[in-house]
């Protein structure tokens, strides 16, 4: 505090501060009444009183002119603050991020995934989105929101490992250098995680085209742990890991807490109904089931990949296929579309690309479960296929679960393709018309 | 700002700690209980530096616990509105940056960063002036002014600004 003596500005400023200090302490003490607190208050007041005395004594030695200037400055500063009224664009710990004023009502959207206690208002979000958008479009980047479970990896609780999978316990990779391995045992969370093959290459290449977010229905500790496995250096997902704790709606994922214009966001997820409001941004992923518990959870009775000691193919697995699609979308968006960058919409690119997959197919369905039919039809139509209900010479594909139906027999007679509904699902996942012969129907009717 | 003050606390001690180490047990329990906590009045208790006195214990009926009134000296840290603090940047994003001064979390929004500094994303997000001479990124040390504080049971939140004279980066981690 010896500094105060050499500058009148400081001394007066500090005096002001000491007064403020008193004020701040009084304000707080009014809310607390315990003996312990009262004791401390005296202590504090003593301290500040002493200081005050010191400041006063220093000020007496200064000339009166400088004090006048200081006062003038203070008044000026105060008036300029009052002139522009703060709009409170957001809050941190219930204080306005702009003026520091305490805000009573909790408004705006919480951004807990960035920092605890941070909230932003809609106008501020859209302002940030707009400035961001321009910058990213300029550097040819879009946004990509990635799901974790069954999309990038598969996790099981250790106790749910089936006896045939127990060999995995000894095959886990070391946690010291996670960038090399793909199978990890997280002892403290009682979990075992398998990364999907190709995921590291996928993230590396995708990060050049996209600003990436993780958005999972898992809780935050789990999400952060997985982010650490996928991105040990924190290059891709730095403060962009969103968990179910952060969402604004229960059991729904929303783009409202993603800093991307909806027209520039792609979503990669295996669960369509989590994204009710953003289906047009969604690229549906084929689920990755490495562990038996995960297969059972979705009602499959087959052996898991781990049980058969196999895995998805690295080179032409689901992630590799989707990466190709992403590249295609990216290049279409930036190089082929015309008009102003800001007006382009990635959702249109997505739907037009999807519409080309089965564009030359005319499909008729035969003996499909009534519950499944509308979905299949919708999916096929989205991929550009024409769906008919009556037989017609233009039909190219008959989709059936049974080779014995009239339409199926007609298809065989007329040398049309007779395929299983899985043919449509596969085309939907891989964004490519699949070879029909892999999805043929056997003559016997015990096919499921 | 730091203060060295005397505080008092009623410590409840389990009978198993009675014996010739009672005093040491009491002190170590005190340290465990109060260091790192914070209160609205005093801010963070950084460290217990000494014991002033320990009063007579009162035996609680039924439990056997004994309550000792303990007066202790400690160093507390409490940020004030208007105070100038030096802090280390922990996270930079497009909303602004977060910094820490010891246990205190400070947020400086991009409204309160000088207008000539612009956000640059990438591996190491940062705010940089147009000529590139000043850069704020993770681990930079900044001098900032507190414009708002709020104290929770366990945390203190502050809003800071560097949009004022003599505020901003005081060292650059890349040049060290």
Can you describe this structure in just a few lines?
The complex is a heterodimer of chains A (448) and B (176). Chain A is of the alpha/beta class and 448 residues long.
How are the SSEs placed, and which strands pair?
The complex is a heterodimer of chains A (448) and B (176).
Chain A: H1 8-29, H2 35-61, H3 64-83, E1 90-92, E2 95-96, E3 109-110, E4 118-120, H4 122-138, E5 142-146, E6 153-157, E7 183-186, E8 191-195, H5 199-209, E9 210-215, H6 220-230, E10 241-242, E11 265-269, E12 282-284, H7 292-297, H8 318-336, H9 346-354, E13 362-366, H10 373-382, E14 386-388, E15 397-400, H11 406-413, E16 417-419, H12 422-430
Helix pairs in contact in A: 1-2, 5-8
Chain B: E1 2-13, H1 22-34, E2 38-39, E3 43-54, E4 58-59, E5 66-77, E6 84-93, E7 96-101, E8 104-109, E9 117-120, E10 126-129, E11 135-136, E12 141-151, E13 156-161, E14 168-171
Parallel strand pairs in B: 8-13
Antiparallel strand pairs in B: 1-5, 2-3, 3-5, 4-5, 6-7, 6-12, 7-8, 9-10, 10-11, 12-13, 12-14
Protein name (chain B): DNA-directed RNA polymerase subunit
Family (chain B): Belongs to the eukaryotic RPB7/RPC8 RNA polymerase subunit family.
Subcellular location (chain B): Nucleus
